[in-house]
Amino acid sequence: MITQALAVSAAVAIAEHRAGRSRTLIERNVIALRTSNAIAFLTGFVEPVIFLLAFGYGVGALVGTVAYEGATVPYTAFVAPALLAASSMNGAIFDSTFNVYFKMHLMRLYQAMMSTSLGPLDVALGEIGWAMIRGATYAVGFLCVVTALGISSTWWSLLLIPSAMLIAFAFASVGMSLTSFMKSFQQLNWIQFVLMPLFLFSGTFFPITAYPEWLQGVVMATPLWQAIALCRGLFLGLVDLSLLWHVLYFAVMASVGLIATTRRLNALFLR
Questions:
Q1: What's the mean pLDDT in 27-47?
Q2: Number of folded domains in the chain?
């Protein structure tokens, strides 16, 4: 028992020490936000609000209501959570691709970090942790907007904040691992090439039941559809055990991405 208690205490101490080291990267991103990245950060919040006003009220005035999961919901309420999910994805991908590429290949920031007590896992956790903070910030701001507009009507919507953080964690971990393979800025356009059809065809603006059945299965396997389904269920109060499958999906996605990112950083900088 004593040995087990000592092992647990050692594990907790290591985890706390690692969290402290990863926090330095988050602090650096906060400083950069105050100096040069504020506009880029702000656009991630403004963009879904503009889409909400344009599509939710513009197209919504023509569509009226939408049938979703056996319920009839206003089109504005149908679109709003999808835009929040897409915003969390876009913010995480932007941070973990363009920003990470710039730090990795132009500033050579990670090389300098690796010469200190920081390790690959610390760097990965720090950058991904910042993406989670960004996702949470967007969720809080967006919830304030939809509440002020009278769109949100259930307390389940508060769970969109941790959901946005989980979505951001998953996308950031995968995005950072993919960026580690990029050799030029032009290759980053491949990621944008994938994000655009995801945004348009993952049920953001209309139910995927409009697709043939075989295509619905393909769309349901994509991460953005999983994010939208999770956020939409919470936002509309359609809460059941099926939402746990979406959570599990992103937990697995985040774990795989974090492991891949750590191994890639280790291979690149600790050879």
A1: 71
A2: 1
